[in-house]
Amino acid sequence: MQKHVTVGVDGSPESRAAARWAAQEAVLRQVPLRLVHAVDWPLDPVFPGLGRQDVDRWADQALTEAAQELHGRHPNLEITTRCLTARPAAALAAEAADAGLLVLGSRGLGGLVGFIVGSVALSTVVATDTPVVLLRVADDPAGPGTGSSGEVVVGVDIHEACDRVLTFAFEEAARRDCPLRAVHGWKMPPAYSYVPFFDPDNERDIGRSVTHMVDDMLLPWRHKFPHVNVSHSVFMGSAGDHLVRAAQGAQLVVVGRHVRRSALGAHLGSVAHAVLHHAAAPVAVIAHDGRSATGTGRPVEEEDHEAPAHHR
Question: Which of 11, 5, 167 is nearest to 96 (CA)?
Fold first, then answer.
């Protein structure tokens, strides 16, 4: 049985849009929906000058109103609410631990494409291994121009095992009965910049080799999800830039982030960071262990990769 969907609710338009999207996702998955609000007290009360009882009353009202609206839209959906006293990022990450998906709202950049991703959202994304979806008010299922019938787009990396990322993307495409497009970006090895007479055929050969490797990576999932219409786009250049462009008209963009810790804290990765801030579609961030596809266990940077070694 699949786990429930959790969504952060704080009464803002962004969180209401996230709650509506999360409710649709819970219906697709046929699982319950949990609405969560975190009261950061006494460090950062929701409204300065209000007492604890006022803040708690406001939080309960925000949860109740959100639940009532969603019950009206999805009368058969099981909805529960939780109001916690904790820092929002820590509370949401803890609540995500037993969930199948965490959904968070983010502000859009006005008339521009992309997100304004707050510190709470970013801190939550890197603090949990549960898949997290961020969406803007513009992605609200109840808003104008929404309900895209586009594809699911997933960023793939031929240099590492990204089973969780691909499984999530294929499952989402299967639920939505929509096409799936895999995107991979690659770069020429730095040594080629010093070659005085570069043969363009080398670039074409490398491109074909990388495309074959992407085909091989997708093959097991094609067999497992035979009804999903799969295509791929292999580009020389920044993976983040190509994913942002592919997000236009997409229902969902799926990217991975490595689960690794350092003295500076958890790491999001440049590709995921670029997509989160600039994509014009909901973005799902999937944590994975970052081990090499060769099984060496060597961490691989989440960034564009150079061409396969045998072409260097």
Answer: 5
How many Å is the Cα radius of gyration of the chain? 21
pLDDT, tens digit (0-9, with 9 covering 90-100), for 143-154:
543 445 689 999
Contacts of 8 (CB under 8 A, 6+ apart): 15, 18, 36, 37, 38, 88, 92, 102, 103, 104, 105, 124
Quote the longest CA-to-CA distance of the chain: 74
Cβ atoms of residues 225 and 217 within 8 Å: no
Q: Strand, coil or helix: what is 288? A: strand
Could you tell me the pTM of the whole model?
0.81
What separation in angstroms does the CA of 118 have from each of 108, 122, 124?
A: 11, 6, 10
Q: Distance (Å, rounded) from C-alpha 120 to C-alpha 46?
A: 14
Q: Residue 181's closest CA among 122, 132, 248?
A: 248
- Can you read off the two tokens belonging to residue 310? 């045998």
Give CA–CA dist 53/265, Å, rounded. 35
Tell me the backbone φ, ψ of residue 106, rounded to 5 degrees. -145, 150
> In 3D, which of 31, 34, 39 has the Cα closest to residue 10?
39
pLDDT tens-digit readout, 58-116: 788 889 999 999 999 999 999 999 988 888 888 899 999 999 999 998 765 444 444 45
Dist CA 247 CA 77 (whole Å)? 29
- In 10 A of CB 31, how many CB atoms? 19
Quick one: which H or E segment has residue 136? strand 132-136
Nearest to 74 by CA among 158, 130, 141: 141
φ/ψ of 96, rounded to 5, equals -70, -15
The predicted pLDDT at position 230 comes to 95
**Residue that wins the pLDDT comparison between 203 and 210:** 210
How crowded is the C-beta side of 156, counted as CA atoms within 13 Å?
31
Cα atoms in the 13 Å half-sphere on the side-chain side of 222: 12
pLDDT of residue 192: 56
